[in-house]
Amino acid sequence: MGASSAKKKRKSKAKGLKSPEYYSRMAHFYSIRGDFQAAAESLRTAVRVDPSNPKPAADLANLYSMMGDFDEAELFYHKARELGDKSSTTAISLVTVYQIKGRYKEALELIDEIEALNDSEVKTEEIGFARAMCHIKLEKFDEAEAIIASMKKADCNPELIEELEETMKTQKEESEKLSASRAKAKKAVKPAEKAEKAEKAE
């Protein structure tokens, strides 16, 4: 055991706290029971006990993401990365949070970072799916279609491809409806402007 580790454990005991591993185990126990709030509290304690360790922070982020609390999930994914978590798994989880929050440009920037790591932890189809979905939501349909075509050639999961194609179809329809609505509104404004000018001329 290193000097810093021993010092950390003595400090924890002095405050009446146990090891971070203990709180992580308790969090796992509470999660199995379905008590996610208690699990989150245990992991928060683990983060306080061992503030330089990225693992409890990443575990807490994963838990919050599962609970649907994406603000807290983002906060602790960032904390884990700041503490040295360089794993592609944590990064791709943060990409998912960005997508859920509609921050597709940030998601694409992070996807570039993940690809640069060339980490076998994250599957190519996972990256392709995430990137294509961002392009669809940003209405960059040509880019999305190119990625989908590459995924088909690479024999990626057909369910992922189907989800992308369905999402793109829906997004295109919504985009066309919005464009038609704007065009209609613009046409309606012109007669009103002409009538206003005519009244002023009189």
TrEMBL record:
Keywords: TPR repeat
Family annotation (InterPro entries): PPR_rpt (IPR002885), TPR-like_helical_dom_sf (IPR011990), TPR_rpt (IPR019734)
Repeat (TPR) residue spans along the chain: 20-53
Basic and acidic residues composition-biased segments: 167-179, 190-202
Keyword Flavoprotein: no
Region of interest (Disordered), ranges: 167-202
Keyword field contains Kinase: no
PANTHER family: CELL DIVISION CYCLE 16,23,27, CELL DIVISION CYCLE PROTEIN 27 HOMOLOG
Protein name from the UniProt record: Uncharacterized protein
Lineage: Bacteria, Candidatus Walliibacteriota
